[in-house]
């Protein structure tokens, strides 16, 4: 297993006192916490509401009492799956503060209310930190390959695939894994993965990016209007399954472009939406479209980070990456594996015809023809390393 350096390590290490590290399942919270933080003991709350400590499973009351005793002694304790802890125990934990260091890990975005709600006994005691999937720049700086970096943004996939070709050869199995993970996420959020939520995720994976598009596709079978679709999308955003990218000149009702937050989820759900892989088995499928879309947005996210800008989407003009500063485009890019001279000329003209004066080309696999802002594969890696160095200088590098 190779290592991907992650900036979150130093960030969570620099948090002082009691802290809550939260985010959806399988983004690496436990791995990073147990490798980046100094701690004396680790406890896990099981689904049966017992405490797992080393190889033993003990009653919840006994486990919490043991944790309280250790905190009073000044110990540093990790308590994993904190979202499962019944609220009656929060008062008990609060009585120990500020003794020791309590590090809470939670696989739920809704858990935040347990520590910042005005009625929470932990309010003001615990600093929350949200963790997502691996930053594209972190992955690229480590693996030196844009497409592998895209795949490995979800850390769980590292043990199961070495390239996107593994997903194309085995789409059914990877779809079942990602669907199961989504089901776990909903379970931790005390929700049910309904047919409607699943249908919306499939539509988003296939490129239906706003509520109007989704409702038009699903209205006949599910009676979903744009308002209902928007509400479902908001829920999916809150549980960490969908990301929002600002739309530039999108018009009312199209302020945000919606996409699945995880590249592997986006690609496998596209495989199901397009090819019904759950029914047809592991037949080799063509996943060029969703992989291309995800590499485009991941590169866009990295360039936005590099320029301290905001990534945006333009519905018109077929422009791949648009970066905004102060709400206006300051640069745009066409992203392709390889460019011909004709491709490059047309791309630059299209961007400038849209009114964006600064136009560039990103060649993912080989250097594009020279332009005022050409970026080839080596330069992409350099940019990732420059971001890494900049973050390191701020005190934030870690290992996956």
From TrEMBL:
Protein name, UniProt field: AAA family ATPase
Membrane-spanning intervals of the chain: none
Source organism: Acidianus infernus
Limits of the AAA domain: 20-137
UniProt-listed Pfam families: AAA_14
InterPro entries in the record: AAA_14 (IPR041682), P-loop_NTPase (IPR027417)
Domain of life: Archaea
């Amino acid at each position: 297993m190779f290592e991907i350096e992650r900036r979150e390590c130093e960030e969570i290490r620099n948090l002082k006192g009691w802290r809550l590290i939260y985010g959806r399942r399988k983004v690496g919270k436990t791995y990073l916490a147990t490798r980046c933080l100094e701690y004396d003991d680790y406890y896990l709350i099981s689904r049966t509401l017992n405490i797992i400590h080393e190889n033993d499973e003990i009653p919840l009351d006994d486990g919490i009492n043991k944790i309280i005793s250790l905190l009073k002694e000044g110990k540093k304790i990790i308590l994993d799956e904190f979202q499962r802890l019944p609220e009656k125990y929060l008062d008990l934990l609060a009585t120990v503060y500020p003794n020791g260091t309590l590090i809470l890990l939670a696989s739920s975005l809704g858990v935040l209310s347990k520590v910042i709600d005005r009625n929470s006994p932990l309010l003001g005691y615990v600093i929350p930190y949200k963790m997502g999937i691996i930053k594209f720049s972190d992955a690229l700086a480590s693996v030196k390959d844009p497409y592998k970096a895209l795949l490995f943004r979800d850390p769980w996939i590292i043990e199961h695939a070495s390239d996107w070709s593994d997903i194309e050869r085995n789409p059914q199995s990877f779809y079942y894994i990602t669907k199961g993970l989504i089901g776990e996420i909903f379970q931790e959020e005390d929700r049910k993965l309904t047919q409607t939520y699943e249908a919306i995720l499939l539509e988003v994976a296939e490129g239906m990016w706003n509520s109007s598009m989704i409702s038009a596709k699903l209205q006949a079978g599910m009676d979903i209007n744009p308002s209902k679709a928007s509400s479902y999308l908001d829920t999916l955003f809150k549980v960490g399954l969908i990301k929002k990218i600002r739309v530039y000149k999108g018009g009312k009702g199209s302020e945000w472009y919606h996409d699945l937050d995880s590249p592997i989820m986006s690609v496998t759900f596209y495989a199901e939406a397009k090819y019904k892989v759950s029914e047809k088995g592991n037949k080799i499928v063509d996943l060029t479209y969703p992989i291309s879309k995800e590499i485009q947005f991941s590169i866009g996210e990295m360039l936005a980070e590099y320029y301290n800008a905001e990534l945006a989407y333009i519905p018109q003009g077929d422009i791949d990456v648009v970066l905004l500063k102060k709400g206006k485009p300051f640069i745009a890019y066409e992203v392709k594996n390889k460019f011909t001279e004709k491709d490059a000329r047309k791309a630059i003209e299209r961007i400038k015809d849209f009114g964006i004066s600064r136009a560039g080309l990103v060649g993912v696999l080989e250097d594009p023809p020279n332009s005022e802002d050409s970026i080839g594969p080596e330069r992409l890696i350099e940019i990732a390393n420059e971001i890494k160095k900049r973050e390191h200088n701020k005190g934030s590098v870690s290992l996956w």
